[in-house]
Amino acid sequence: MKEDVIVQIRDIKKYYGKEPLIVKALDGITLDIQKGTFTAIVGASGSGKSTLLHLIGGLDQPTSGTIRVAGRDLSMLNRDQAAIYRRRNVGVVYQNYNLISMLNVYENIVFPVEIDGNTVDQEFIEEITKLLGLHDKLERNVNQLSGGQKQRVAIARALAIKPVLLLCDEPTGNLDSRTSQDVIGLLKASSMKLDQTIIMITHNEEIAQMADRTIRIEDGKIVTRKWGEPCL
Questions:
Q1: For a tag on the chain, would you pick the N or C end, based on fewer CB atoms within 10 A?
Q2: Residues whose CB falls within 8 Å of the CB of residue 68, separated by 6 or more in sequence, listed in order
Q3: What is the pairing mode between strands 38-42 and 165-169?
Q4: Any bridge partners for residue 226, and if so which?
Q5: pLDDT of residue 200
Q6: Structure pTM?
Q7: What average pLDDT does the structure give for the chain?
Q8: DSSP 3-state assignment of 52?
Q9: What is the DSSP string of 152-169?
Q10: For the CA atoms of 115, 117, 122, 127, what is the dihedral angle to 10 degrees?
Q11: Distance CA 69, CA 63 (A)
């Protein structure tokens, strides 16, 4: 793997069922993603983009092909090793936030750190909550927040483990246009300041254009790879 490549995908296939009813969710994906970049993966529903995100996150195994993250072959991990890989290396931002309603903002953010038995880096938590505009809301219950604020909490929670990768699954799907652009702006800011590598799937073409690079998938295949202007 090249030194600046954090994700290396080679001829990944993910098939479901058997002939003649086989479903080819991914059909020969080869892709490199450089460290510290922000990549948007776009495509219609059923195109395979969510399947690809799940494979990169270690949530599933491909039918064939290899995925290496930071030089580690994910296909060599058993179920327990894959779970540890996710907890320690992958932050995920979901469309529906997936916050714990009985916990306040701070408790939601540090939850993945504590569940892995690690000590919370308070200085780092202070840094990311200031970056995301949450520093004065840490004691507030998440049910008292707006949609945009909840998504900021979800981003902070994903960043709290200091992940190698930040995977974003339609992170602006429930937000209005202005809030969506604010959230993507915060993701870009965190990517630059904290040296995060971000992979985001989205249906929103306007949002995708805010990324460094756009990958379009149709019927389980990459059809375009476009580099945009670098984030400033």
A1: C
A2: 1, 7, 8, 9, 74
A3: unpaired
A4: 214
A5: 95
A6: 0.87
A7: 89
A8: helix
A9: HHHHHHHHHT--SEEEEE
A10: -60
A11: 18
SS3 182: helix
Segment holding 125, helix H or strand E:
helix 122-131
Tokens 């969510």 correspond to what residue? 50
Q: Does domain 5-227 have CATH number 3.30.750.24?
A: no
Tell which residue, 173, 44, 192, has the closest CA to residue 98. Answer: 173
Q: Rounded to whole angstroms, how far apart are CA atoms 46 and 69? A: 25
Q: What is the pLDDT of residues 93-124, one digit of tens each?
A: 988 899 999 999 999 999 999 988 889 999 99
35, 86, 31: which is closest to 192 by C-alpha? 35
Does the pLDDT value for residue 230 go beyond 80? no
Amino acid at 50: S
3-state secondary structure of 78: coil
Percent of the chain with pLDDT over 70: 96
Q: Are strands 5-16 and 165-169 parallel, antiparallel or unpaired?
A: unpaired
**What are the distances in angstroms from CA 17 to CA 12, 59, 64, 126, 179?**
17, 19, 14, 48, 40
Residue 1 has pLDDT above 70, yes or no: no
Return the bridge partners of 31, or none. Answer: 9
Q: Which of 77, 90, 228 is CA-nearest to residue 161?
A: 90
Query: Which DSSP category does 141 fall into?
Result: B
Distance CA 202, CA 41 (A): 6
Could you tell me which of 169, 149, 145 has the C-alpha nearest to residue 96? Answer: 169
Q: Could you please report the per-residue DSSP string of 80-92?
A: HHHHHHHHHHEEE
- Distance CA(50)–CA(46), nearest Å, equals 8
